[in-house]
Design a protein that fits this description.
The protein is α/β, with parallel strands linked by helices and 296 residues long. It is built from ten helices and eleven strands. Helix 1 crosses helix 5 and helix 8 runs antiparallel to helix 9.
């Protein structure tokens, strides 16, 4: 069962929301203030699916509470509920990555529909990179095929076959998500890279398609170095004794756009640099970064 946290300093509002959302199959936690809500999320790191918080409360306000919840678990759908909606509050909420914005008074049906809608949007956004999602919001013309120069980075775990043989599937899946994909995906985004896809235990990232192509190679290499350092620091601490990685990076002209059929499409890039980066990654030793000549 997925749980939902309701945060409001008014007991009547908490009870009303609880009655409405229990019908959606959620288990409900109630909190009177932000600190109590944060404690609930901290004590249930994998069980919380969504949180609805009043904006104006004693102590931490709703926005501060949801920002802290996002740091603890970015997968949680975060919704602001307020009777004092202003443009400034809405802009703040969007800038902080809040998933939904509701105003009082509300009907039970409206709350149920909006929670489903915001939760679905949250999950769908995870299937495309932040840059692609932003471009899609601007208009479909940004998704058309175009030639451009980009830097491609491939990264994967050395010795993954041995690891997969020694661990149960559920343990391996949890380990990959928690100790490999989560920290390294964050590093890619920190350096402005577009997370293209995960392929098994491999990460493909693209730099320069939607941003400054002049700094793409520099950012990709800095990203790769930080990835190696992050995994090096974890060596010997994880359940498997660490996850050393190898990285390949290549720069050149690619074709970018939406590829696929009417049933299934993805925004990605094709071209020689993609193939070269993948081959360099396969040749890289543990904690090595191999560059093509253009990137160098």
């Amino acid at each position: 069962m997925k749980y939902l946290v309701i945060v409001d300093d008014e007991e009547g509002v908490r009870r009303s929301l609880k009655r409405a959302l229990e019908k959606e199959g959620y288990g409900i936690f109630l909190a009177e203030n932000g600190d109590e809500a944060i404690s609930i999320v901290r004590n249930h790191p994998q069980g919380i699916g969504a949180i609805i918080s009043d904006f104006r409360m004693p102590g931490k306000n709703g926005l501060e509470t949801l920002v802290e919840v996002g740091r603890l678990n970015p997968d949680i759908t975060r919704i602001i509920l307020t009777g004092y909606a202003t443009m400034e509050t809405a802009i703040q909420s969007v800038n902080e990555g809040i998933d939904g914005f509701l105003t009082k008074p509300f009907s039970n049906n409206e709350i149920r529909v909006k929670v489903r809608e915001y939760s679905l949007k949250k999950r769908l956004k995870q299937f495309v990179s932040d840059q692609v999602y932003a471009q899609m919001c601007r208009g479909v013309e940004w998704m058309e095929f175009r030639r451009c120069t980009a830097t491609i980075l491939f990264c994967d775990i050395r010795g993954f076959s041995r690891m997969s043989e020694e661990m149960a599937e559920d343990e391996l899946s949890l380990l990959l998500n928690r100790e490999f994909f989560s920290p390294l995906d964050d590093i890619v985004c920190q350096w402005g890279g577009m997370l293209d896809k995960h392929i098994g235990d491999s990460i493909m990232a693209v730099f320069g398609v939607f941003d400054d192509v002049g700094t793409a190679a520099d950012r990709a290499v800095a990203c790769g170095k930080m990835m190696v350092e992050a995994m090096s620091r974890s060596t010997g601490e994880g359940e498997t004794g660490g996850m050393p990685i190898g990285i390949g990076i290549s720069t050149g002209e690619v074709m970018a756009g939406m590829f696929g059929s009417p049933r299934r499409k993805e925004y990605t890039v094709f071209g020689a640099p993609v193939n070269i980066a993948a081959r360099l990654e396969s040749m890289a030793g543990s904690e090595e970064i191999l560059l093509c000549e253009n990137t160098f």
